[in-house]
Design brief:
Elements: H1 2-12, E1 17-21, E2 24-27, H2 28-44, E3 52-56, H3 61-73, E4 76-79, H4 86-96, E5 100-103, E6 117-120, H5 125-128, E7 145-150, E8 160-164, H6 165-180, H7 198-208
Length: 209
């Protein structure tokens, strides 16, 4: 699975910088620990294989922690751009049957009506931070969903495209070989999380150090 690639890299370079944003940074150990704590919280809420979790957050360190935490919990993330029209967000939450929504406190009031359980990565951070930070026993396997990305709907009703772990891991392993990536490289993640190439921009460097 995707997160297993990251966990392997954590063991190799725990103190190296994994992600940085706006003057802030997390090492591989810090990122992994926070994601493990979030994953435990999500499992307490029923997240596991084939369970979708909405992600409506602004770009930043919390976004990466959130994605990795969902994968470690065994679930699949559904990116919801905060700039999306409320009707589209409401449709995606309902269509994906996401029982949990990761967001930030300042975005809660702008969300449309929904039935998902809200987890605020900032406001709930202190509570989540009290949970154990060791790696979790795996529940998902490579055939399980990693994420679901919705089409624009320009030709009709938006459709959720379901991406399993094995497809992303195959892509990452291919890109590691050609054109190749090493510890001295830095990747700039510029794509919106709602576009498929974002998975490569984020997880390829995390899986290669």
């Amino acid at each position: 699975c995707i997160h297993h690639l990251v966990e392997t890299q954590v063991q190799k370079t725990p103190d190296a910088v994994a992600v940085q944003f706006d003057g802030q940074a997390l090492t591989y150990r810090q990122l992994n620990s926070r994601a493990n704590q979030l994953a435990r919280h999500l499992r307490e809420l029923g997240v596991g294989p084939e369970v979708c979790v909405g992600v409506c957050v602004e770009r930043g360190l919390d976004m990466v922690v959130g994605l990795l935490g969902i994968l470690k919990a065994g679930g699949a993330y559904v990116p919801l751009d905060p700039a999306y029209p409320p009707d589209r967000v409401a449709f995606m939450l309902q269509d994906s049957q996401a029982p949990v929504l990761l967001t930030q406190q300042k975005l809660v009031e702008s969300l449309p009506a929904h039935t998902a359980k809200i987890v605020c990565l900032d406001a709930d951070g202190a509570c989540i931070g009290k949970l154990p930070d060791s790696d979790l026993a795996p529940t998902a396997d490579p055939t399980n969903l990693a994420y679901v990305i919705y089409t624009s709907g320009s030709t009709g009703v938006p459709k959720g495209v379901m991406i399993p772990h094995l497809a992303v891991v195959n892509f990452i392993n291919s890109m590691r070989r050609e054109p190749g990536l090493g510890p001295e490289d830095i990747l700039l993640a510029v794509t919106t999380l709602s576009f498929d190439i974002a998975g490569l921009e984020l997880f390829l460097p995390l899986a290669t150090g």
